[in-house]
Structure to design on (121 residues):
C-alpha cells in the first residue's frame, strides 16, 4: 500500500556538507532520519569530461509533501551547482517505523502554494 513518505538520495563531497545538510533537515523537521553512507565513488560526465569523485550518500527519510522544502534546504547548504536530489516513494514498510517517521516530520510544506517553482506537492 502506498505511503505518504519518500526516500531522497543526495550525494555530497565531504563530511562538513553532509553534517550541515543533515542538521538543517532534522532541525526543521523536514526529515525524520538521514543516513550518511561514506566511501561512495561517483563517476559521471561533467562539462564534456568524465570525472570521478569520492562522495558521501545521504539517505533522507521524509514526507512526500515536504519534497520542495527538502530541495530548498539542500540547495541552501550544498556547494555543487547541480546537486543530486532523487526522490523515491516508500510503497510499504514496518508500521511502527512509518508511524515514527510521520511523527518526526512536519505534516505540510512551509512553502506557500502560490510561490513560483512550487508544484503543489
Amino acid at each position: 500500500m502506498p505511503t505518504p513518505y519518500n526516500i531522497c538520495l543526495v550525494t555530497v563531497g565531504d563530511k562538513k556538507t553532509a553534517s550541515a545538510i543533515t542538521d538543517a533537515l532534522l532541525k526543521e523537521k523536514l526529515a525524520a532520519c538521514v543516513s550518511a553512507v561514506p566511501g561512495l565513488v561517483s563517476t559521471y560526465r561533467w562539462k564534456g569530461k568524465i570525472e570521478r569523485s569520492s562522495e558521501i550518500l545521504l539517505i533522507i527519510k521524509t514526507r512526500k509533501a515536504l519534497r520542495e522544502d527538502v530541495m530548498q534546504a539542500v540547495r541552501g547548504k550544498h556547494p555543487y551547482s547541480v546537486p543530486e536530489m532523487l526522490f523515491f516513494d516508500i510503497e510499504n514498510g514496518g508500521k511502527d517505523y512509518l508511524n515514527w517517521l510521520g511523527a518526526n516530520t512536519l505534516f505540510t510544506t512551509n512553502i506557500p502554494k502560490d510561490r513560483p517553482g512550487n508544484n503543489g506537492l
Summary: The chain has one domain: 5-103. The first helix runs from residue 15 to 27. Residues 5-103 form a domain with the Alpha-Beta Plaits fold (CATH 3.30.70.120). The chain has a mean pLDDT of 91.
